[in-house]
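Task 17 of the worksheet. Students: predict the tertiary structure of the chain below and write it out as structure tokens. Keep your answer in the requested format; marks are given for formatting as well as content.
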Amino acid sequence: MRFVIVTGMSGAGKSSALKMLEDAGYFCVDNLPIPLLGKFAQFITEGNSGSIQKVALGVDIRSGRAMEGLEETLEEIAMTGLEYEILFLDANDEVLVKRYKETRRTHPLSRTGRVENGISEERKKLEFLRKHADYIIDTSQLLTRELKGELDKIFVKNQGFKSLMITILSFGFKYGIPSDSDLVFDVRFLPNPYYLDELRPLSGNDAPVSDYVMSFEASQVFLDKLEDMIHFLIPNYILEGKNQLVVSIGCTGGKHRSVTLANGLYQRLSKSEEYGLRIEHRDIGKDAVRKKIEESR
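Model answer:
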């Protein structure tokens, strides 16, 4: 039997994860009172006659003061011989606040106060669960389909869990540095395809632009050194317990040079299986949108 405890920060995607696991054939129970966990564990091990083989149990801060007894309850369950796994869904504070404001929901611990205060208090109360988690997935940058893909790898296909998710993000400095960046690199020192009429309407995803940018020795050297540094940092970040790394590469408009270098780094890093990897071009189409707005005025 596989018994998964799904928990994490409110707003990080726990409900979505439970629905995905249910679709994958798991028997799911959400927000079961903590005093009943022991009896529930006894039921699924002794009373279901083997009819239930995959269970996902949602536990979160809604349990209130009963959360204080969760650690002891889990120890008692472990003593019965039932093995369980803990999946912890997390996201950075800025993303959580944004999600709450967009849905206009109230944080369970903020009451009539600020959402930020509720998030801070929740982190303290859930710290012991995060420390004991078998899997920590940071959903700050994950799309719904990407979260489903990660869950399928772990709980359906039984593939190895990649504790570090790396996001390679291209952007334009004139639109601002991404606030969630861990590492920021400026490639505006490279020749700009924007000043070539035949390349201006294209992007770094198009071969003529990519070939032009990478035809310069400085581009090759930069990419070699960046790859070498990232490979040095990754094991140290994993050792530290970091589960989300955003590497941002910027040029003026986020359309030509940054896209080319981001794609190049993505291709090089994709050869490893030590971490998850995704790429995003934040500003690749903004120049075109801005031009249409200006023309319409």
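Marker's comment: The chain is about 45% helix and 20% strand. The two ends are 64 Å apart (CA to CA).
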